């Protein structure tokens, strides 16, 4: 192998050209043979055509600031999902029956037909974007160009219809789901509102927001309680004093004691009692006026009592003056004065009124105490009520926030549904319809030509390599000097025989014919690659008919 490598490395361009000329038949014959096989395969192989439809993904026409779409699935996922729907067995069987596919294969199973059609469909999402939008293509391959074009366009229509239906279904489903959830939240919210209203109705007056009012009311009740106690004490003192006066008057009436006359006036026990009662009530009225205004009920009541006592004192003085004027002006120190029964009677009436007033004051004090206990209980229970109502209010606020959020989302969903129904959302639009394919995608003329050319030249070159380097034959004068090491003294030219010239002419003519054939095959391959197989075949048919 090393010697062969050295020999190949030592070859000169003239030697290579000489080998090619000498072994020209080993090059041209395999070359023509494999080119002919490639051409025959190109012409006889079944032709496959491909039609493709480009679909543009248009964004929604209504700005997203106004209407937010609720179809948020990724475009790639949506395309894959629609592809699975379109490539379903039911849909592909309809296409097979509509376009009468596999008519030449009556014994083929339906599953094989469906799988074959499914393999011919290709959905390719284009990575390049046009003005910020995306696009994808739907292609179909088959042997009939017209059928391939129609099926590709129909598949594109399926994609558009399925996309609209899927978006509308998803929008309606989302809206219905939000509607059902909203009804559930609404029922919970109403129940919480009823529970909150019932709690407020049960504990009315003791709620946390009424604490300030309860404290002010409790202060006012305490003041009333204090005033009532003072009024009760004053009335009890006055009643006791009146009782003492009545008892003294009765004792004086029974003993017949006479009043003493001093400076021409009678000092009677009944008169002094009225004046004393007037003085006591006057002092009590002055104390009340220091605390309350003249419109206070106790002040008004006591003022009326003081006015009555003043009238009574004035009346008694007038009666005494008349009594003194009718008597003997000469003083009689031994005469006795009897008690005034009218005054005693009047005192007893006043005592009864005071006792009734004391009873009323005691009743009022009891009511005030009960009211104070109620309001004090409300104030003490306020922290507990506040905790309870906060618990109910917290649940109510959470449910209300959920309801408000769901309500807003439902309104957005209704807008999105209307947008999808009016086809204002994201849509698929056919950018390029599938056209009638003129050039088949297989067989690939260029690839078959390159393959035939490479195999033909490789096969001939391999044979020449084996013959030249495995057969050690001396072909030139230089090999004798280099390989044997002997000098060349003389050279004998080739001996020409009579029939050699004729053989060379025949050989040259045959080589020209074979070379022309090879050129013709190369020309046909070039035309097939440029014009297409169908056009070349139709052209041949036209010439053959002529």
Features:
4-stranded antiparallel sheet, rod-shaped, Bacterial polysaccharide co-polymerase-like, alpha+beta, two-stranded antiparallel ribbon, 3 domains, 71% helix, 546 residues
Low-confidence stretches: 1-9, 128-132, 257-272, 328-340
**Topology, number of strands:** 6
Percentage of residues assigned to helices = over 70%
Overall body shape = rod-shaped
Topology order in helix (H) and strand (E) letters:
HHHEHHHEEHHEEHHHEHHHH
Query: Biggest sheet: strands, sense, closure?
Result: 4 strands, antiparallel
Rg, alpha carbons: 66 Å
List the strand order in the largest sheet. 2-3-1-6
The share of residues in extended strands comes to 5-15%
Write down the domain tally.
Answer: 3
| Cα distance spanning the termini | 60 Å
Kindly name the structural category.
alpha+beta
Protein model, in words:
The protein is an alpha+beta fold. The protein has helices spanning 2-10, 13-22, 24-44, 75-86, 89-98, 110-120, 145-202, 211-255, 269-291, 297-325, 341-421, 445-470, 477-484, 500-531, 533-545; strands at residues 49-58, 121-130, 133-142, 261-262, 265-266, 427-432. Strand 2 and strand 3 form a beta hairpin. Helix 8 packs antiparallel against helix 9.
Helices, strands, pairings?
Elements: H1 2-10, H2 13-22, H3 24-44, E1 49-58, H4 75-86, H5 89-98, H6 110-120, E2 121-130, E3 133-142, H7 145-202, H8 211-255, E4 261-262, E5 265-266, H9 269-291, H10 297-325, H11 341-421, E6 427-432, H12 445-470, H13 477-484, H14 500-531, H15 533-545
Antiparallel strand pairs: 1-3, 1-6, 2-3, 4-5
Helix pairs in contact: 3-12, 3-14, 4-7, 5-6, 7-11, 8-9, 8-11, 9-10, 14-15
């Amino acid at each position: 192998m090393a010697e062969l490598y050295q020999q190949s490395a030592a070859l000169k361009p003239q030697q290579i050209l000489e080998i090619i000329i000498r072994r020209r038949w080993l090059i041209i014959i395999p070359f023509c043979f494999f080119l002919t096989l490639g051409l025959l395969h190109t012409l006889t192989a079944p032709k496959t055509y491909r039609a493709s439809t480009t679909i543009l993904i248009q964004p929604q026409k209504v700005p997203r600031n106004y209407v937010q779409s609720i179809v948020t699935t990724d475009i790639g996922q949506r395309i894959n999902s629609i592809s699975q729907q379109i490539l379903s067995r039911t849909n592909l069987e309809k296409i097979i029956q509509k376009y009468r596919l596999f008519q030449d294969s009556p014994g083929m199973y339906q599953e094989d037909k469906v799988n074959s059609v499914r393999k011919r469909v290709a959905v390719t999402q284009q990575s390049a974007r046009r003005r910020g939008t995306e696009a994808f293509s739907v292609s179909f391959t088959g042997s009939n160009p017209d059928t391939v074009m129609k099926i590709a366009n129909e598949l594109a229509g399926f994609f558009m219809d399925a996309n609209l239906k899927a978006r509308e279904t998803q929008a309606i489903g989302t809206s219905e789901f939000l509607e059902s959830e909203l009804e559930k939240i609404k029922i919970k919210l109403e129940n919480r509102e009823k529970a909150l209203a019932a709690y407020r109705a049960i504990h009315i007056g003791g709620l946390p927001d009424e604490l300030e009012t309860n404290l002010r009311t409790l202060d006012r009740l305490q003041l009333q309680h204090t005033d009532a106690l003072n009024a009760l004490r004053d009335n009890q003192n006055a009643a006791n004093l009146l009782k003492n006066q009545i008892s003294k008057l009765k004792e004086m009436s029974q003993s017949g004691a006479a009043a003493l006359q001093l400076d021409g006036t009678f000092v009677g026990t009944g008169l002094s009692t009225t004046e004393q009662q007037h003085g006591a009530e006057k002092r009590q009225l002055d104390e009340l006026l220091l605390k309350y205004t003249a419109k206070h009920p106790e002040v008004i009541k006591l003022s009326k009592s003081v006015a009555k006592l003043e009238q009574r004192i004035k009346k008694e003085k007038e009666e005494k003056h008349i009594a003194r004027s009718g008597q003997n002006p000469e003083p009689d120190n031994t005469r006795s004065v009897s008690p005034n029964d009218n005054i005693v009677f009047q005192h007893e009436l006043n005592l009864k009124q005071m006792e009734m007033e004391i009873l009323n004051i005691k009743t009022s004090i009891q009511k005030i105490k009960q009211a104070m206990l109620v309001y004090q209980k409300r104030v003490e229970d306020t922290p507990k009520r506040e905790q309870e109502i906060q618990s109910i209010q917290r649940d109510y606020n959470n449910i209300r926030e959920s309801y408000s959020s769901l309500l807003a989302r439902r309104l957005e969903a209704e807008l999105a549904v209307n947008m999808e129904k009016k086809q204002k959302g994201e849509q698929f639009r056919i950018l390029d319809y599938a056209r009638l394919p003129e050039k088949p995608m297989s067989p690939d003329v260029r690839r078959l030509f390159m393959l035939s050319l490479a195999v033909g030249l490789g096969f001939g070159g391999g044979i020449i390599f084996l013959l030249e380097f495995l057969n050690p034959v001396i072909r030139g004068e230089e090999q004798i000097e280099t390989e044997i090491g002997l000098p060349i003294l003389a050279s004998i030219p080739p001996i020409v025989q009579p029939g050699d010239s004729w053989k060379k002419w025949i050989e040259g003519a045959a080589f020209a014919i074979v070379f022309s054939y090879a050129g013709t095959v190369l020309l046909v391959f070039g035309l097939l690659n440029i014009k297409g197989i169908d056009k070349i075949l139709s052209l041949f048919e036209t010439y053959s008919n002529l």
